Amino acid sequence: MKNRFLMALLLNVGAVLAFSMPASAKDQAAPSMAELTEQVRATEIAFAKTLADRDVKTFTSMIAPDVIWLGDKPYHGPAEVVASWKQFFEGPTAPFSWAPEIVEVQEGGKLALSTGPVFNPEGKRVATYTSIWRREKSGKWLIIFDRGCPDCDCAAEKK
Q1: What are the tens digits of pLDDT across the range 46-65?
Q2: Do 116 and 100 contact (CB within 8 A), yes or no?
């Protein structure tokens, strides 16, 4: 009798505790694809703003430790990327800017692509960038691949 009473008491206490505990992050509603897309768009805009603001520290914080940056040659890791971009952070104004035109998040919400135009200081489109972002466990998006390609003057090439 005593054992049954203790067992029932323990089960009741366990049930009360289980229902009164806050839901874990896993149990909370996952962000929708639209919300994730807007997160990536906002992250890309903030990333571009780091160059305009001459803020290399924040720029670096948005780069994944295992990034591969395709420039003149592949750069691996934030230190190589920042060293290759150091010149772009010098001077009072940014030598170019960029903005997302297309943002797509992969089903599952862990990877995303952002692509769009790159403009010179006069506002002329001079290139197109493509970035791949990875959503970390914390929910923060970090860039894992990046590639810029100069635009061509296709009309001039046909002549």
Answers
A1: 999 999 999 999 999 999 99
A2: yes
Q: Which amino acid is it at 81?
A: V
Helices (H), the chain: 2-20, 33-52, 56-61, 77-85, 154-158
Inter-residue contact 109 to 136 (CB < 8 Å): no
**Count of structural domains within the chain:** 1
Is residue 114 within 8 A of residue 131, CB to CB? The reply is yes
Tell me, yes or no, whether 6 lies in a domain: no
Residue at 28 is within a domain: no
47: CB partners within 8 A, 6+ apart: 59, 62, 131, 143
Please indicate, yes or no, if residue 146 is contained in any of the structural domains. Answer: yes
Contact call for residues 146 and 129 (beta carbons, < 8 A): yes
Within 10 angstroms of residue 31's Cβ, the number of other Cβ atoms is 15
* Residue given tokens 């780069």 in the structure block: 63
The DSSP code for 43 is H
Half-sphere exposure of residue 78, counting CA atoms within 13 Å on the CB side?
Answer: 12
Q: Which residues pair with 134 in a beta bridge?
A: 111, 142
Q: What is the pTM of this model?
A: 0.78
